[in-house]
Amino acid sequence: MKGAQDFRAWMSDIQARVELALERLLPAADIVPTRLHEAIRYAVLGGGKRVRPLLAFAAGEAVRADAARVERVACAVECIHAYSLVHDDLPCMDDDVLRRGKPTVHVAFGEATALLAGDSLQALAFQLLSDTRLADRAEDQVEMVRLFAHACGSRGMAGGQAIDLDSVGKRINLEELEHMHVHKTGALIRAAVMLGAHCGPSNDVASKLECLDRYARAIGLAFQVVDDILDYEAPTASLGKTAGKDAAQDKPTYVSLMGIARAKEFARELRARAVDGLAPLAGRGTRLAELADFIVYREF
Amino acid sequence: MKGAQDFRAWMSDIQARVELALERLLPAADIVPTRLHEAIRYAVLGGGKRVRPLLAFAAGEAVRADAARVERVACAVECIHAYSLVHDDLPCMDDDVLRRGKPTVHVAFGEATALLAGDSLQALAFQLLSDTRLADRAEDQVEMVRLFAHACGSRGMAGGQAIDLDSVGKRINLEELEHMHVHKTGALIRAAVMLGAHCGPSNDVASKLECLDRYARAIGLAFQVVDDILDYEAPTASLGKTAGKDAAQDKPTYVSLMGIARAKEFARELRARAVDGLAPLAGRGTRLAELADFIVYREF
């Protein structure tokens, strides 16, 4: 019980820290072009569970990384996440009007501004990865940019969106569904963990990347399985977005392919796979394990 | 006359080299997601004057940069340019159906795929800037990423698009028009020059950045002034895109604000401003000067 309270406090601290950092790092709303900057701030601030930043900080703690560096990385990942939601909500994509309980960016600011806000957020993420020193060796920082750019691209997150598009209305099997999610949500979740880890001292990081990578892949998939479960079960109000849309759009999900009971079991299996691999972190993987529990047992 | 022939040959060489490099560096069309990769290749390959790559190579020659590095940088800049055109052509932006004499990407592949192709191209540009070593010192490569990310973002190119959006149907003055173009087209043209220069030996580069920066700013603006002149004067067929759209959409241009004669004079003044500053390059600025002439006196 104490552990759980401690974790909740840590989580709130990180969430508040990331919110403050984003407030500071996003262009102010009175800088020209003001409407674009308003839209960017609207898209990023004041909402979201900040799961990816939490993962970056938890991975950073596992390798004794400098917290100021991890904060930058966490904000960069969150900018990419926010941009992906803004573009994903556009009429030509999911055509969603509600996100985190608020009108989506294109509803509030118009489609053109939403498009540019997403585009700008992707660029901003790379600004955050290059504006200040984030690794002991500059070579490692170039590697961080490389890892991140691949996670965002056509064989990472954006590619996952494209696979998702192609799958609507089609019968796909579990393997194809996993392939989609490994890209669509998994790539950025993995980037959050790996970038957080890269902020650590270089001698400490290399030996731990493999187990962190395994953790990140399992938890990235678990995250999506739980998302599908929540979309199936939760009412719109508690979800803060339109629930039941997957079924309405005839999108394949873990629930539609496995059934609800097996999907829940699969999420627990993935949690175990993620956590069991943390032994090489020699006790510094506590936050990662707690986050795995949080992701799998969350109700929103 | 010999100089002009020599320049044309150099230009063709670089254009062919960049085309081949892009062919190789873009994901193959048979890699999943195939439709996205087809759209990306359609957007980038087989067209365009490759002005930004030419500028990168000319700046690279001015500092004796390694051509293989400049090639990467040129491709990265061209990916950003292509993405900006794809998004700019979307129905929620300029709603254009013709580009380089072909249907625009969203006409050929649908809006959702066009959106994702643009998003992926931005990420790909940063992959190209980080996949291989591009500067003698890794610190300088991080600086290249930084410079590039700022050129792409809300206070660079994407911001310029937003200012452009806000200006439609409004009366703006010359200063505001210049402010828009410094961002919308100037930022990426400047990035092409500066990144090309950063590929050179670090001791050679620092002393030349200031004059290259001055050149890049003048030529970036000249490029837009000439674009406005061509949109006003050229028939659609020779332009490869819909001509006369600026006036039809009541967009402010150099021609509408200055008149056609003064706009042409201004382009020549900017050319002189760009070229006069090249003296510190000690004779290695020939290609940059020739490119300035090409940009200002082009007819397409």
Briefly summarize what is shown.
Chain A is mostly helical and 300 residues long. Chain A has 16 helices and 2 strands. In chain A, helix 3 (51-62) packs across helix 9 (174-198) and helix 4 (67-89) packs antiparallel against helix 6 (111-128).
Description:
2 copies of one chain form a homodimer. Chain A has 300 residues and is mainly alpha-helical. The first copy, chain A, has one domain: Orthogonal Bundle (Farnesyl Diphosphate Synthase), CATH 1.10.600. Chain A is built from 16 helices and 2 strands. Chain A has a two-stranded antiparallel sheet with strand order 1-2. In chain A, strand 1 and strand 2 form a beta hairpin. In chain A, helix 3 runs antiparallel to helix 16. Chain A starts with a helix and ends with a helix.
CATH architecture of chain A: Orthogonal Bundle
Strand share of the residues of chain A? under 5%
Largest sheet of chain A: 2 strands, antiparallel
Strands of chain A, count: 2
- Low-pLDDT regions of chain A: none
Straight-line N-to-C gap of chain A:
21 Å
Query: Radius of gyration of chain A, Cα only, in angstroms?
Result: 18 Å
Largest interface: A-B, 54 and 54 residues
Give the SSE map.
The structure is a homodimer of 300-residue chains.
Chain A lengths: L1 H24 L8 H11 L6 H12 L4 H23 L8 E2 L2 E2 L1 H5 L1 H18 L9 H15 L4 H11 L6 H25 L3 H4 L3 H25 L2 H4 L5 H4 L5 H5 L1 H17 L9 H12 L3
Antiparallel strand pairs in A: 1-2
Helix pairs in contact in A: 1-4, 2-6, 3-4, 3-9, 3-16, 4-6, 4-9, 7-9, 8-9, 9-11, 11-15, 11-16, 15-16
